[in-house]
Amino acid sequence: MTDEKRPLIFIVDDDPMYHKLISHNLRAENFDNVMVFDSGEDCINNLDKKPDVIILDYEMKGINGIQTLKKIKEYNKDIKVILCSSQEEMDVVFDSLKFGASNYVRKNEFAYNKIKFLMKNILN
After folding, report:
1. Which pLDDT band holds residue 4 (cuts at 50, 70, 90)?
2. 85-94 contacts: CB < 8 A, separation 24 or more?
3. What is the mean pLDDT of residues 68-89?
4. pLDDT mean across residues, the chain
5. Count H helices, E strands: the chain?
6. Residue 7: DSSP 8-state
7. CB contact set of 72 (below 8 Å; sequence gap of 6+)
8. What is the reported pLDDT for 68?
9. Domain boundaries, the chain
10. Which CATH superfamily is domain 9-123 in?
11. What is the mean pLDDT of residues 8-37?
12. Whole-model pTM?
């Protein structure tokens, strides 16, 4: 058993299948301190738990990923955020980076491998 702090990862996505897939795969990579939220509002209301990384969907009911990202960065600019979306609009990519996302991942068959790579780089 190590004394190192286990990084806390939030997964924010209103698609239950997608967040189950991501959380399952992260746990398989020993990123086992994961909390799942199905809305931006729930994520924002739990920022006091001090997540290290937030994997954030763009399209959600209520406030979208960019609005959530802005609030996360207002709360703590040091929280790393990976914005994920099936959006093909370049404005979404540019806005996510402009407002402080560490990276943008397009939801497709390669998304999880890219998330895994980014997580290892962010947390190491």
Report:
1. low
2. 85/57, 85/58, 85/59, 86/59, 87/58, 87/59, 92/58, 92/66
3. 94
4. 92
5. 5, 5
6. P
7. 43, 44, 47, 54, 56, 79, 81, 100
8. 98
9. 9-123
10. Response regulator (3.40.50.2300)
11. 92
12. 0.93
